[in-house]
Amino acid sequence: MRRSKLLITPVLLWLALFLLVPMVIVVVMSLMSRDTLGNVVFHFSLNGYKTFFDSLYLGIYWDTLVLSVVTTVVCLLVSYPLAYFIANASPRVQTWGLVLITIPFWINFLIRTYAWVLLLRTQGVVNTLLIHFGWIQEPLQMLYTKGAVLLGMVYNFIPFMVLPIYVALEQMDKRLLDAASDLGATRWKAFRHITLPQSKSGIMTGCVLVYVSTTGMFVVTDILGGAKSTMISNIIQQQYLGARNWPFGSALSVIFVITSLILILLFNRAMQSRADRAKEGRA
Amino acid sequence: MHMIELVQIEKQFEGQVVVHPLSLNIEEGEFLTLLGPSGCGKTTILRMIAGFEQPTHGEIILEGQNVTKLPPNQRDLNLVFQHYALFPHMTVGDNIAFGLKMKKLPQAEQKARVAEAVQMTQLTALTSRYPHQLSGGQQQRVAIARAIANKPKVLLLDEPLGALDLQLRKSLQSELKHLQRSLGITFVYVTHDQEEAMMLSDRIVIMNSGKVEQIGTPKDIYAAPKTLFAATFVGENNIFSSGSELFAVRPEKLRPKRETEGVRKTGVIQDVLYLGNVHKLTVQLDGEPMMVTIALDFEDEIVWKVGQRIGVDWNPRDEVVIGA
User: Fold this and answer.
1) From residue B151, how far is each of A56, B119, B158, B252 by CA, in Å?
2) Least packed by Cβ within 10 Å: which of A63, A143, A156, B96?
């Protein structure tokens, strides 16, 4: 008992130093006030939280939630078939599939996102091609729309969804599908009753990763969304850097962390089956 | 009508023949065992009957119907998998009900069938458990219950006891035999354990490198092995040659003699084994490369010593000419 406590001490220290302490600083900061020059003054105030309930910020908060959830759902719909295909391919194709999915990570994230600007802008590749083939007369406004932001998010976070689902599918005992078939299941029913539940852990991990990454992402919104689209993370960034209102930025962060925690908790609760709980009960 | 007819089925993988053309009829209610060392093709035959492999040539007839081209989910038989392949996210009850659900049986019927299957396999108390909460023997029972709940015409079993320890295997063997008698359905059983095959089967098909060595009742195979492989794979045996002919004499048919004159062979005792119910001598024959094993009579009070030179004799009527 004492020995095992000793063994996890480094982990606890690490968590305390790099997770707990910063969180506490943010929470404390959110309850402070700022003076006219933008310095944080140690004087208790709920102004940060009060400002949030301004309709402007509530709207952005709602937009952020919607965009994060939609990004997660679209990522899931695109990634599941891809992960399924890779997991069921020959070892050679599997290796190539995984390499192709990770290659974009070798290129700087900003450059990848700017590449979309080149594709989507009014004189961009897509518009030029569409006009060339005579499908449209006037260039479409694709850049600086919510659609462009969604596209950028989905594009950037697909690997976060594909990889955990791939791992879950790859680890699944394929003999279970033989058993299902032997018991009279069609291919679709075997997928529905065996493969899908067996890959649930991957779906859950992927969804949480993509959701959390989307809520925290402000660069994609800046580059592809222009002035019209703003997310909570953009506001937080502005409050910390431009507006120098750290208490308000911290308050927004605290509110969003809490919202995300509640959402993830509800999501886990909804996805967890009796089997998972039975497993946890034993562990 | 035969329950299963295998008509000249052959299986090749990448040009390599893993099952040579084989014809075999399996009767209703029969317990038939495919016996052989690993890689002999016995599991491939079972998987072809189940529908997971397609024979390269030949036909599989199930109760008069040609099922060669049918996928597994359209064949009225069930397979008990070697490593059970239980669905980990389902309870024992849901695992057993799976096949019934796929066939869209009415709820009440499903419940009755599950109840019957768990009762037959003594799992009634465990229906709401998950597979990971069960012991190996219990998981094995679930695999059987899941298959028999479908009331298949034929139950295929792929080394179902292979992963269990000896004690448990012994007790499950008799349970299986009992279950097969009370269900009256045809069992096609795959094993590499000759003792298991002898104990359970009505008929045994002995296989070696994709070829059938012998088909017969356990008694036939023990008393009159057709090939050298059959003679040595099932039970212990001593092989002698006379001219171009090979013949076998079982250890219990060899008699040790203290005198070395007027006997068929002589040799030196290498080992004296007391194995509880069996007492054995291993003897190195003079002028021959082989050792023979002699099972001793219990009445025999003679004390045999390692290094002792003895005579080895037998009755010519106990010689089994191989291939005759």
Assistant:
1) 66, 15, 18, 43
2) A63
